[in-house]
Amino acid sequence: MDYFYGPGRNHLFVPGPVNIPEPVIRAMNRNNEDYRSPAVPALTKTLLEDVKKIFKTTSGTPFLIPTTGTGAWESALTNTLSPGDRTISFLIGQFSLLWIDQQQRLNFNVDVIESEWGQGANLDILASKLAADRAHTIKAICIVHNETATGVTNDLSKVRKLLDEYRHPALFLVDGVSSICALDFRMDEWGIDVALTGSQKALSLPTGMGIVCASPKALEASKTARSVRVFFDWKDYLKFYKMGTFWPYTPSIQLLYGLRAALDLIFEEGLENVIARHSRLGNATRLAVEAWGLKNCTQKEEWYSNTVTAVLVPPYIDSTEIVKRAWKRYNLSLGLGLNKVAGKVFRIGHLGNLNELQLLGCLAGVEMLLKDVGYPVKLGSGVAAACAYLQNNIPLITSRI
Amino acid sequence: MDYFYGPGRNHLFVPGPVNIPEPVIRAMNRNNEDYRSPAVPALTKTLLEDVKKIFKTTSGTPFLIPTTGTGAWESALTNTLSPGDRTISFLIGQFSLLWIDQQQRLNFNVDVIESEWGQGANLDILASKLAADRAHTIKAICIVHNETATGVTNDLSKVRKLLDEYRHPALFLVDGVSSICALDFRMDEWGIDVALTGSQKALSLPTGMGIVCASPKALEASKTARSVRVFFDWKDYLKFYKMGTFWPYTPSIQLLYGLRAALDLIFEEGLENVIARHSRLGNATRLAVEAWGLKNCTQKEEWYSNTVTAVLVPPYIDSTEIVKRAWKRYNLSLGLGLNKVAGKVFRIGHLGNLNELQLLGCLAGVEMLLKDVGYPVKLGSGVAAACAYLQNNIPLITSRI
Amino acid sequence: MDYFYGPGRNHLFVPGPVNIPEPVIRAMNRNNEDYRSPAVPALTKTLLEDVKKIFKTTSGTPFLIPTTGTGAWESALTNTLSPGDRTISFLIGQFSLLWIDQQQRLNFNVDVIESEWGQGANLDILASKLAADRAHTIKAICIVHNETATGVTNDLSKVRKLLDEYRHPALFLVDGVSSICALDFRMDEWGIDVALTGSQKALSLPTGMGIVCASPKALEASKTARSVRVFFDWKDYLKFYKMGTFWPYTPSIQLLYGLRAALDLIFEEGLENVIARHSRLGNATRLAVEAWGLKNCTQKEEWYSNTVTAVLVPPYIDSTEIVKRAWKRYNLSLGLGLNKVAGKVFRIGHLGNLNELQLLGCLAGVEMLLKDVGYPVKLGSGVAAACAYLQNNIPLITSRI
Amino acid sequence: MDYFYGPGRNHLFVPGPVNIPEPVIRAMNRNNEDYRSPAVPALTKTLLEDVKKIFKTTSGTPFLIPTTGTGAWESALTNTLSPGDRTISFLIGQFSLLWIDQQQRLNFNVDVIESEWGQGANLDILASKLAADRAHTIKAICIVHNETATGVTNDLSKVRKLLDEYRHPALFLVDGVSSICALDFRMDEWGIDVALTGSQKALSLPTGMGIVCASPKALEASKTARSVRVFFDWKDYLKFYKMGTFWPYTPSIQLLYGLRAALDLIFEEGLENVIARHSRLGNATRLAVEAWGLKNCTQKEEWYSNTVTAVLVPPYIDSTEIVKRAWKRYNLSLGLGLNKVAGKVFRIGHLGNLNELQLLGCLAGVEMLLKDVGYPVKLGSGVAAACAYLQNNIPLITSRI
After folding, report:
1. Before B17, cis peptide (omega within 30)?
2. pLDDT for A28-54, tens place per residue?
3. Closest alpha carbon within chain D to A21
4. Domains in chain D, please, with CATH?
5. Cβ-based neighbours of C372, under 8 Å, separated by 6 or more
6. Neighbors of chain D by Cβ distance (3+ pairs < 8 Å)
7. Which residue intervals define the domain Aminotransferase class V in the entry (chains A, B, C, D) (predicted)?
8. Which of C310, D109, D123, D340 is most buried, judged by most C-beta within 10 A?
9. How far is D378 from chain B (nearest CA, A)?
10. Are the CB atoms for B399 and D6 separated by under 8 Å?
């Protein structure tokens, strides 16, 4: 039973959920198991060890929570902060907006630093706020590494630099939902206190697992944080970690085996190669956009995202029409423009288990779509630009050399 | 890759997660999809409509939350109650204990009515408390329909009767985790305000979906409830329900299709037939226990559970050994005794997509296990008792007549 | 476990085995069943009825044989002919060559009509042979509808016309392996006596089912045909058809359910729409080849194949290198040149459950490959030509309008 | 979509096709691949090497043929014999009958040695025939190792002994369809020239792969054998083996990966442990039959089969009713009585990936069935007898100790 079946593969280019590789689909194709038998803890142990590698942390403590990215946010915040705590949060797009909304509803005192959508986090203002905060009233810096709505990647190393410069003890909380496992991410090196992602993004799993990683400092903070929490409480996890049974409540057996397979694939390809592949996909997409004569919603190269590109359409075109038509005519799923940029951008997600020829099929589809809606694109132009770059840069597949 | 492979099927007789039927495994064997395309809302709409049938409600509003039973509890409580609110909660086993713990940590004023483990909720005390509460300080009655740790089923209709008798406006919140879709459950008729279950129980899905159903009165309460919540906030769901896109954050595509298949199977069998099958499985199990000369942890027939049987072992036997050995020698997964009854009981879960011959294989295994650990069981006795009952009571499979 | 894993989807563009759609993979994801229970005959009955639709026959009798195309050939021949019988067979490429080889090894007297590879069957010679054969020594005309090695489609209606013109009673045996369910095929209208295909071609299933359809005249011939056969003997099938149990030996349960799903998808799309889609894919591919400045191995438009295109490379290029490199660098599977055209052509299969954007991804890959091996292709040129055509011709997906 | 769905697992106790273990179902849950890419030959190479282990041969040459057991028979015969050749064949049940029928239709001169159904091959007569055959007119001894219709296992070592004793050069051809991978089988030690099995039997795969293994002597014979064959011709395989591409025509990618997984499971358990497990299952079944007061169709202990038990019912009972009712009421699939023993026996298959508790569930079901049809069985008696034996004999699962 499929709803609205179309022939051939669906071309899934939303910035999540993304394509699940066949070996992962296979690994999850299984019956339930007793999670109190010795098998599940044995499996969990390898996962907790290996998942740290994608965060690039050795000192962090990971939590595999049966939830979504939104829940992972809540886990990060409620375990480390108390009501009334001052947080600094950057408003640069829909997802940072939603996180700020969550922070406010959780009763933090959110100090919002807003940028125009398409720009990155304004770190100059952060600097001045840190400078001014001698009393250390700022308890946490909350930042979205990669704003999925606008395709903007923030430079986390600079945030750390500023915190160090001002010797500021604020916790450094990072939403890595559309970055971790696809973009360069270094939890330990950048002194990140809580980092989080969701299974359905670069890990290329189904939705349902929020992965949160806490630094020792964050764990320490969790002991005194007074935000009310039960389901998201790290304490319960830590108690079961100590007992070696790992789970305070029932995990999804399927997602555990899926995560095992997903990590195996990432390690087989090599995490650095995965990141390099995303860089190629990002570059190729941007070259195509340029060849079409369209603008990237992201205003400066320093913020270009290698996991999603938000493409600005001319004012006489409604980007929503492009997305609808993509699905109706080409079996292509593109991302809508959200909120402030609704109707103005469409988004090409290029993250997860994806290769160059898949992207080129998508780009060819976008060209036809642009023509469909009356934009005078030169057919083949974007693909040509992308190919010219890719043909010089795609490496041989390591296992096949 | 399997951990600790054993030949043949694993005999899964923990009271959840339970066996997933093949058609459901098949339905979930799929790639991700864009949940903002028209297909997912169309699918979701049918699910929200149909899921009400398993709650037996027409006026309730269901929420399919990417979480576990623990999260579903939190959703039920935080959306309807405010910190400091007085709840009445029945402590009769490990799961009611955990729910009470959650209520306390969420800062409610929990009025605990305790029973010996193996007994049901003490409704006489409830009656007296209701009688005394002229001021209506009791905001909610929280009750676990079926306590999975002891195999005790509470009579919800009596709770409603008492509330009516005393014209008490308290909300009636029910954990139906190991009951809904297996035991007789009537949300509307019994005036339940919030009922909840988890996907991995009688629905026979993987873990990962908490299903919560709210009465109009509960929805009304949610407008003024001051418990802090974001991820679990019904408001966000209701907003997206109104928009027709249904999802405030990313759902698991696989679980949605899985739920569709699970409901289809339940409706094909007929919900009443599903409940009757659980009754047969429960009766057969209890007859076997009796034939073995062992006692049911459940002290009275009125509380007997048709989804799980906790079997008391003689004092000279450690029930944990039975469970360990079941897995090591017979590829059989039984439930451990928890907390107060650890070492004293083992549990046979008999819920979900399960038939009589599967149960008989399990019962035969338990007989050998009892012998293994030195209990003087007469081999074949329990199976004989169960068969004598079942051979008289199993109907022909409707589709095969 | 995958051999030589590469990130992202494998782009499968060999002319078979082809991509299996997800609903079909799902349908086959199942345990074995007793094929003597009532369920399998009930399923088989619908299959035998529905499979006739893809042959466009109402009078034919289909056989679903656990074998490959080679076995289906053998079934067609041995059931209708006797050793020493004169057959006319057209040698136009590797697969017609192999069939001729089989005919010779089965001891028929094969009268071979050879054409240059890249040309279709020489029907003028057929005409003269029919004209000369007053004695009706020709017992069968054996023809490959679509020669997969060269991408040549023969005109079967003309063969029928000639047979009618000369009132020749020869049996008309057709290999429809890479045509049926993708190209226009009309068993009854064209008076075909045995038509056959394989599951892994346009039906988009795994390999393992040879589907043979026999006209009443062919069935009649089978009663006296003296070729030795047991496994392939239609008689055994017919005996079990009569008994209503259908299977003389064990069928693959998985392929039966897979065929059910495959047929359902074809009927949902509409067989005529499936054929039109293949026409679009063929046209688009040929436009790309032309834009690259390369030649189609098929020498005349009348023989152009809509399921596979064999592309001639310049003499200074080894087409085998292209195919190897496609797999090693781009995770793209192209077809090799076979036998006489080895090294000279590479093949793009465009059949089965495939859509336009998938093809465009492949074409973009071929452009990069051509550049890789030193051919001065203008990147984007083929995709541009294909897009210009497709953007005008792709219909909306019916279920999504 | 399932035909005639019943709740819970289907209890599959026909003697093939048998239960597929989950890891094998998972391994086959995949898209097609280009079988001419380097991956498939690499995989095939490991399969051909490893499959020899289940035949216990180092000198044999295996063929993995896309066919069924019937096709495997034909492959064994046509590659080694010429029309008119004298074969000795033992008629002891339905499957030996069918093989004899095939031999006759393939124009061999079949010298049939018949036994009563329920008895093994009459080796005394074989001895006298060998003794008499000074001229070596007997070209092959054809024997079914385990007759699936009656549950009779022949002693192959005795056949070899006789051949050696009379220094007779006849080929020794063995149908191991329901024995290999379940019963003790030693191709090299017993001097077997062709042995064969089918994927859906003890290997626990779907139907569709006939596995044939030829000794050097058989390969030598194939060079001069004049039986007509193409699809089944070993020559084509050997040609592609030499080229390293392995496949003369398209294999099922899914079955190749499935076979890989199936062999891995068998080697993980240990082939000797697999055989011991079948011995336990056979013994347990026979003890149950005895306890029920019923007779085994197999007349002597020396012929008892550990893969299937044919149970004789009293004359006043129609065994067909038992089989029908098993499926209709208990979701249990039993084997019918075939041909001479139709209505007189029902069969319990106990082969493949199966464990003791699964069998006990089946035995309990049979007890209820016997009662259903009016046989005065003591419920629990068979299970008790089986349990008494099994509880003493089941080892711990190696991986879980």
Report:
1. yes
2. 999 999 999 999 999 999 999 999 999
3. D30
4. 11-18+271-400 (3.90.1150.10), 22-267 (3.40.640.10)
5. A391, C322, C325, C329
6. A, B, C
7. 48-297
8. C310
9. 8
10. yes
